Amino acid sequence: MVLLTFVVGCTEDFEEMNTPSNVITKVDPSYVINGMFQNPLSNYQRNINLYPDFYSQYWSNIVSGFESPRYEYVDGWIGNQWNEFYTGPLADYNAQIGFYGEDPAYTNVLAQMEIWMCAEWQRMTDTYGDIPYFGAGTGETVPYNSQQEIYYDLISRLKVAVDAIDSDDSSQYAFPANYDLIYSGDLEKWKRFGNSLRLRLAMRMSNVDPDKARTEAAAAIADGVMTSNADGAHIPLWSSGWYDYHHQMAWNWDNTRASRTFTDYLYGQSSVGEDPRAWKWFTYKDDDDVLADESVITGIENGYNTLPANAKAYATINLDGGYVGFVGDGADILMYMPYMFYSETVFLKAEAALRGWTAGDANGLYIEGVQASMDYVGVDATSASDYISGLPSLTGPNEEQLKQLITQKYIANFPNGSEAWADFRRTDYPDISLPLDGVSGSSSVAADTWVKRIRYPDNQHSLNSISMPSTQNTVDSDRMDIRLWWDTADTKTKSGGLMSSNF
Amino acid sequence: MNQKFNYVLLFVALLFIQGAIAQTVSGTVIDNYGTPVPSVNVIEKGTTNGTSTDFDGNYSLDVSDLSGTLVFSSLGFVSQEISIGGKSSINVTLTEDVEQLGEVVVTALGIKREKKALGYSVQEVSGDDISSAGDGNVTTALQGKVAGVNITTTGGIGGNSRIELRGNSSLADNNDVLWVVDGVPFSSGDTSDGGIWGGTSNGGGLLDINPEDIQSMSVLKGGSAAALYGSRGANGVVVITTKQGSKSQGLGISYTGSVVASNAAYFLDLQEEFGQGSEGVYDRLGTSSWGPQFDGEAREAWTGEMLPYVAEKDRLKNFTRTGVTSRHSVSLSNGGEKGSYRATISKDWTEGIYANNEIKKTNFDLKASYEINPWLNIDSKISYINTKGQQRPEIGYYSVVSYFNSMPMNIRLQDLSPGYEIIGGEHVETLYTTANANYRNPYFLQEQVVNNDERNRFFGNFTANISLTDALKLRLRYGLDNYRYETESGYLYGDNVSDQKPNYNTGEKFFSEENMELLLTYNKDLSEDFNLGVSAGANKMYSDSDELSASSGKLISEETYFLSGAEDSSTISATENFTEREIQSVYGFVDLSYKGYLFLNATARNDWSSTLPDDNNSYFYPSVNLSGLVSEMVEMPDWVQYFKLRGSWAQVGKDTDPYNTSQVYTLGSGRFNLTTSSEPNLLVNSDLKPEISTSSEVGAELRLFKGILGIDFTYYSEDTENQIVIVDLDQSTGYQGKYDNLGLVVNRGIELMTTITPIRKEDFRFDITLNYAKNKGEVKELVTAEDDDEFYTFIEDNGGVQVRGTEGEKMGDIFGYAYERSDDGQIIVDEDGLPVRAAERQVLGNIQPDFTGSIGLNVNYKNFFISALLGMQEGGEIYSLTEASAVGSGNALRTAENDRMAFFVDGVMADGSSPTQIVSAQEYWGRVSGITEEFIYDASYMKLREVSIGYNLPLSLFGGESNFIREARISLIGRDLFYIYRDTPGTVPDASAFSTSYGAKAFDFSPVPVTRSVGCSVNLKF
Hints:
Chain B: It comes from Maribacter luteus. Chain B: InterPro entries: Beta-barrel_TonB_sf, CarboxyPept-like_regulatory, Plug_dom, Plug_dom_sf, TonB-dep_OMP_SusC/RagA, TonB-dep_OMP_SusC/RagA_CS, TonB-dep_rcpt-like. The complex is a heterodimer. By secondary structure, chain A is mostly helical. Helices cover 43% and strands 5% of the residues of chain A. Chain A contains 18 helices and 8 strands. In chain A, helix 3 (29-42) runs antiparallel to helix 5 (79-100), helix 4 runs parallel beside helix 17 (417-427) and helix 5 runs antiparallel to helix 6 (107-128). By secondary structure, chain B is mostly beta strands. The longest helix of chain B is centred in the first third of the chain and has 13 residues, at 2-14.
């Protein structure tokens, strides 16, 4: 027996032994926010450019065989967005709640993460509609929740998170400034971002739930939204490593060109004719075919079946336009992906005023929104004021005013395709074309109908179809022309260029 | 250096030469059949003076007293005592001991047991059988020698091997066999496999074993045989006993040497009629062989010269060299009354068929045994092994084989060589077309790519055998396996394909495993009829490995091929990796025998593993087996000498890899050089249970017609459930997958080993050994609540060809693309006149063979001997990815059919009408290359795996038996000489996988050309 104990010891240290020594078991909050903030950029092309950027018609595809512009779903492209959100930021955030949720010193940083998560949740539900929300990302399969439930919850979470931030409490753990890639540790900006997101959520419900929308929009504005371009939320993109942002896609890879829809809006809006932002954003590539008239910016139409031979001749991104904020030169400068412009906030306020939900001056705010965009893009004061003074004032029927407002918002929001596509689905403004050569043969969108959402990924169909909304739980019924909860009207009901559903 | 060492050994040996010369008795020992019996112990009774007979049954013993008695004993024979009576020559005929007919074999825990008492199948292979063909790799040398053992090798010399005992039971491809050398587990670690996209193959730790040092190998295939090894033995165990010292005449020195030359021998069949270009038009920078027919006329070549337009034949063959393997092994051994020792030094130098590719190995072994006093015996063995691999070849699409199989047929080797020009002090690749990863210069790659490794290993044990009483014995053993493994890989020069070269990577790993073991054995005759043996033991295994690797990122220039030579110091990175695991075990077994013909054996073992969760970390393995000698129980006809029936049942479990049960976080460097960490994509499972295999087998052994025919038959079944695999999760859980227990894989099979000895005369013996094995592995259950997939994908290539295990089906289905066919089976042709590929993948074959077998022939005639081993497989399919790729580039032989005339594809349009569009050969084969069905071949083959022809030189040549040289043998050896039949297009079906993973067997994708080897070996004893 003595010998036996010599050989066989105790097994109490097994658990420690089964934990490797080059790992940690509790993750500092700053270690996860980098990945959380970078998530929308991780696969920008597959998740955003090939879908929202094309569906908002900021960009057009010039790669033959890419069928997402003709409303085709590719699981290997946007199907990743689901995986990347749920197994990325969400899982990381849930773990942080587990580590620090009970520790009062982490209130501020958890609230910052909470604000970010609410923004990402909205992008997710606006992509798909109903999604697993309550309890998601905790290791268990959970039911899908309705978009309404999700919106209501996000609004209240944002309010709680913004209220929780105390920028004067020195006992709080704070992200090192270089880790807070969005606001460099400025908690007041985080609060204004939170309130602005709440305003964005509220206005999204304008048609489906106007009472709730009005209350929340007014409350968010009262609590303090963004006040200047310095408040805008932008995600820095590290150009030293792999990235697939516009500089690559439009210039290096020749995958995209400006959309004709968008470039058309750069002319004729103001009496001055050309939008002074046009050449800041776009130019022509010297080594490509030449268009007949290169004195104006002309994009290529969306939804070709067979691309024209001179597709590359159309306008592409301008690397030298002085507006490097979202372009970069691909070398040593920081690039930014706009997540929420200050101008968007102003346009949201303008719309709230137009709807009579707040006391503000809709036309004044509308002008302020255009000016904010001009400032952001770097348009000189004279050109900007010439353009603005040439714009017609908001007058006439509400639908007409809204169309004008949303059109300017659409221009100002460039290149934030996710937001522009959402505005189009909600308001059906501005006018966005159908795919030139019709939908692709394997698209689930009915002919002559606009795409309204992205279908659930294969992973859900094969492993979680039991939790899906019963009307969308097969690959066939999970159509991309089903309107989301907040999207109340079919674009086809537009008459004389106007909808009748927005008021 | 070798030479010097030999002298040292010789000097040491001289010290042991016996001093006084007394009277000598000599003679020959034969058996009933007149066959000389080697290794018979001849002892002068009452003394410790003794010797043993040589290969020809001869012995010679100096005795102190010519009136004494000699005792002749050997396993399997009745001992005889013969009084010397003053004679100087005594010849003896030993009679076979029926009681001992089944020889003694080494079983679990190194316990030697009479084979007749075993209730399960054990097949033992002698060291001679392993080393006779001059193969320095113990794994490949085992190939074809044991029924039910399938070994697939890949990657050229020193490449990795897969050993499958009785089929694949594991969905997660967890099939590692436990190797035990002299009672101590021997790590097979640090193997590497290539994949479709690259990598190198490395046979890992098993290359360290020296075949010359092996006395015998027991292959414990079934659960019962391996149950005493617990979780680590669940996939089967190979138990190696190394040679030990014995009393020898003469100096006790033996030398074995061999030189073997290997040549690339098996290549894809290529056409030699068409050259560079497209659609019949010559293009000097073209990348495929769709150009015009060769006409010998001068054309401007890619080099700018005017060259005759002809095929460059046998490029791959001429690119390779003859790889010479030389092996030398010297051992010194002796023994006496109290103990014995054996010291061996071996040097191996194996050259690959690619320049610079070689494996060098040094083995030093010292084994000693000493009886300190009547109750204490100490055994110890220490080995030091150094194995160096240099320039292991790349595998996959970016391998030399792939480049040559797709290179336009007129490109000349002489224009590609040496592969580079020196421009501005840097090596610049010579390219026959524009830079692209698919069109590289093999000569350049050979110089550019670095894949080196070196392992220094200490391995050994210290064992004390203590006799507490006559019946009660205790064995204590400490075993250590410890090695340092270094790797170096990278690119010496830049190239035009990637801007991340040159670069440099280095790594080192320290591995250590300790085993402390005790075994208490009690053996007693309960009565005249009953014997009882009871044993109890315990083992503690602790292993850990520490790994550190570093890489430079892009280097400043080829002059700065070292870590700090990075262009940007921020790209220099290091990673470390640790693993640690412990298994504690207690075990026991009971042997009960009745009248020497009925044997019952039961074993039990309990393991506690550190890699499983607390609540599930203890598991128990029982086994029971029964053996009965029917021929002893009842009267048998004259022609039945031996008839044994046996049966066994066992249950064994497997744990999992470390760190699968607790959630941990690694730190990394993210964008903007910020520290990052994130939730792992795999959810840990704290409820993980061990995998359980339940196996049973029944069998019979027969010896008929006075030993002319021997039959050993086994039927077995093995059910493996609770398999630990990664299950895909619904991603909204926050995780992509988790480790889970699921599935049931069932393997059923039979094994038949037959030995036939039609001729057994004094100077002429002829033996035939037939091994036959049939196994069917089936996936019975696969589905869990969370996973509604009905199949498990083992592998998928870039073209979508998969190997699957589908629930309810035979495991290993090959899924790929077939032709779209009409109802009456005709190929559907599209509007362009080309065959249509079916949209959905379908089963096109299965990788499991119907059966495998081998035929061994041994002839001994006077001083000559011949042995040959044929290996075969019947059934099973293989997909020739090699050919599919070469069809696309117009290089495969079949693309030259009909002189590449444009033609109407034999098929029908979707509406049933005849094709209206004529197609060119290039269009046609371009389409066909993506249709898997066209490249599915029967994997059946038969080949001459090994042959050796030898001659024992008469000792009279060296001046008689008492001379310095006591035994001399020369042999000619050959390996993989030819295939008697095979179906694959020039390639081989049995050694073409790009990795050793289960599914890779489905692909003919020759990573390195398969060789044919011939050589000779010399054995000398002094």
